[in-house]
Amino acid sequence: MLGLNKSDFKLFLIVCLLTLAAPILLNPFPVASAMGESFNAGYPALMQRFVIFGILVIGFNILFGLTGYLSFGHAAFLGVGSYAAVWMFKLLSYNVVPAILLSVIVAGLFSVVIGYVSLRRSGIYFSILTLAFAQMSYQLAYSVLTPITNGETGLQVYNDDPQILMGAGDPTVPHLFGWRMNGTTEISMGGWNFVFENGYYLCAIFMIISFYVAIRIFRSPFGMMLRAIKSNQTRMSYTGLNTKPYMLAAFVISGMYAGLAGGLLAAMDPLTGAERMFWTASGEIVVMAILGGVGTLIGPVLGAGLIKYLENIVSKINDGILHNWFAFMPDWMDNLLVTIIHPFIGKGWHLTLGLLFMAVVIFLPGGLVQGGQKIGALLRRKKTQENGETAKKPAE
Predict the structure, then answer these.
(1) 3-state secondary structure of 137
(2) Helix, strand, coil % (nearest 5) of the chain?
(3) Mean pLDDT, range 188-208, rounded to an integer
(4) What is the DSSP letter of 144?
(5) 177 in the Ramachandran plot: left (φ > 0), alpha (ψ -120 to 50) or beta?
(6) CA 108, CA 180: separation in Å to the nearest integer?
(7) Is residue 258 within 8 Å of residue 78, measured between CB atoms?
(8) Coil, strand or helix: which one is 195?
(9) Could you tell me which residues come within 8 angstroms of residue 388 by beta carbon, excluding any fewer than 6 positions away?
């Protein structure tokens, strides 16, 4: 169905169900409970970041996962897309359609320029070139192009901006033809509270579409060509095939995904700054892809979700919350456990992420996807052994 084989369609269906049901699945504990206050992640601001960064890393995976070309400057396209979207809000109106369209187009054009230059080199030299372009973009946005980017203050919408398409009754917040992005519907069931926000579902629809397009690219002749380039680009060149157009196409598609993510970030919060283009933002994208599983379809989504979860959930846990968890224990044991865990929570969440990243790289080089595959294989093996033992009993 939808042009997908059976396994791909099942995976696509799973992603659709998980994405659409996220406001429920990410609130597994009652709101007022200690676990709910600590681990529930079903609030709109965080869920939107889950899917937006999922889109970003899905696009990054088309370049890195299929071709093996590692870009350290992908955050530049995220920032460019955000700036383009905010300028649409300032010049036209708060309608998100022209903002998102321009963010994708501008990021695509920007990636053509950067890709054309960077792809003249391969390996570490390509990575360093993309990093250099991203840092130049950051410095330009932070200081040189202040009239366009508003420098360190960040670009935002003001009351005296033209907004030439703004009607008298139009919302003064980002909207989709009057459908406000910050509009919410709340459903309370017992101790649970589920929040369904319009903006989240707009981002979720874009992520589902982006995931579907990624599947089609992976299974297409174009995707096979990119895999061949990753396998042995030199051998392909010896056959007379010019690989540069394929590489540039993959780079531009990846950049357009990043531009879409940047436009959606601006649609959720019409304020953007140069920090989105900093080199650490690009490094975070790389870590997301590796944690999830480079070259896999669902890996980027898992990696993005895991890092954003750690960043927003683990970072807010403090000593007081830990003492509530261990209140049933003797005081000496409570204090000991809090002392041990303290460096890994709050501002130390990066230490937790670092240890997790080391464990994945050492034991699961294929990322979380490989871990899931190993668990699945183990369960199937156990089930097969149990069935075999059951079949032998009557014969005995």
Answers:
(1) helix
(2) 70, 5, 20
(3) 91
(4) I
(5) left
(6) 27
(7) yes
(8) strand
(9) none
Separation CA 59–CA 61 (nearest Å): 5
**Summary mean pLDDT of the chain:** 90
Q: Is pTM beyond 0.90 here? A: yes
The neighbouring-strand residues paired with 155 are 272
Q: Measure the CA–CA gap between 199 and 179, rounded to whole angstroms.
A: 9
| CA 54 and chain centroid, separation | 3
Contact 110, 151 (CB under 8 A): no
Alpha-carbon distance 307 to 299, whole Å? 12
Residues 205, 98: Cα–Cα separation, whole Å: 17
> Tokens for 230?
């990753």
Cα distances (Å, whole numbers) of residue 139 to 70, 91, 133, 162: 22, 25, 10, 27
Provide the sign of the torsion angle of the four alpha carbons 130, 135, 140, 144, taken in this order.
Answer: negative
Q: Which of 43-47, 61-65, 381-385 has the highest mean pLDDT?
A: 61-65
For 230-254, b where at least 16 C-beta lie within 10 A, e where not — what string? eeebeebeeeeeebeebbbbbbbbb
